[in-house]
């Protein structure tokens, strides 16, 4: 009998426990391109193009092992059932996946199909996420134990099921995805992941701790591994262990490596921590974590404001520069991601369920388990995190002090003197530019922030709010370990009442 090995977010042959454990079983390595999933509100052609490039390289790697990747397009249950009939496979192997609502519902349908047809579905973890976790109290120890386990060895060869048409890797157009120009998108494939990892650990990462917050320096100082971790061309354990090895090499040096690598390890841990939130509560994607925030903002958003924010035309120069940068490249450092959500949520008063899908489509590295908890955290609807309302003008001055980033992405402001670049409406020559080459701000920054602050904090008053917040904390808040790895190590060691850090960064 044979096994269908279903690749999902694990597009590699290295450190792949299921591949390593195949032995002499006949194997059908399978990837399913699911039109229904890719037609979701959070999916985009830039994401698929990254996946398609990764699949091409994975197919070559598997071919060298003797079992080329089989690609099928269609509904997962239909594809799996057809392959079962064609090959006689009585087992289905895959890694666990913490995906969006569509993939969660699909997995439940696959489980029902497998039980009905007598197919044994074996799922194993590939990250620090623990399925059916009963308490967060021991989670960190479990996660660290998994990261420290030896990596799975690539088998010398595989016993392929013969006679199968390998199928074609469909284009984004064939999946029905809208055109999505992204000229600066990172390429997919494991070879690119390894190149990024090596370059970060030996050269680019030395200034990571100091430079991660700025979109200018962060572009090179951050690892840029996030899309590869999201789609599994590189495993979290590989990143963790390679970083640990480099930490041993630089121990005792005074070149900045020690602090930067410690910060990076912290963010790898936070990545698993946030994915665990969605695993524990799938409704993170659709419902405010603290129910008191339901109805705070209009469910039907102001269409004009949403569009202006989505295309980088809010009239707030640094906000628009960050959005345009993201649209062109599919990546943005974490502080600026947080600012985009915060401005949309507080200044523009848009519900996170309207803005979250927009950003998800723009992010090549979209990871549902990180995205939805973070979108809620930055919009202030978790009930356990400090409300943080970014001042977009101040952020522009702080993170782009010479204005080079803003001028590059908002060239319409070329004639504005540097002193007024982040708030051109205060320049006496503003009439030359605003509402002509570039829009005037669609909101008053100070007034909008004040109104938002009052509205959000008003919800927090009363015993009912605190009771619900306590439930959220118990289920989702981080627990600090002895080494403090699950605390933002660039912020003061002050804890909020919830036990979660005042501020979080996930710059990978």
Structure overview:
- This protein is mainly alpha-helical and 508 residues long.
- The chain has 21 helices and 6 strands.
- Strands 1, 2, 3, 4, 5 and 6 form a 6-stranded parallel β-sheet that branches.
- Helix 4 runs parallel beside helix 5, helix 11 (236-250) packs antiparallel against helix 12 (257-280) and helix 15 (334-347) packs across helix 17 (368-379).
- The model is unreliable at 482-505 (pLDDT under 50).
Terminal Cα separation, in Å?
Answer: 42 Å
Query: How large a portion of the residues is in β-strands, by DSSP E?
Result: 5-15%
Structural class: mainly alpha
Instruction: Name the average pLDDT.
Output: 92
Radius of gyration (CA) equals 23 Å
Helicity range: 40-55%
Net shape: globular
Most strands sheet: 6 strands, parallel
Low-confidence stretches: 482-505
Number of DSSP helical runs: 21
List keywords for this structure.
508 residues; mainly alpha; six-stranded parallel sheet; 21 helices; 6% strand; globular
Give a concise summary:
The protein has 508 residues and is mainly alpha-helical.
Q: How do the strands and helices of this protein lay out in sequence?
A:
Elements (H helix, E strand, L loop, with lengths): L1 E6 L9 H4 L5 E8 L1 H4 L6 H21 L4 E4 L2 H12 L3 E5 L5 H17 L2 E5 L14 H10 L10 E2 L29 H13 L5 H4 L3 H7 L4 H6 L4 H15 L6 H24 L22 H9 L5 H13 L4 H14 L4 H11 L5 H12 L12 H8 L4 H6 L35 H15 L3 H14 L32
Parallel strand pairs: 1-2, 1-4, 2-3, 2-6, 4-5
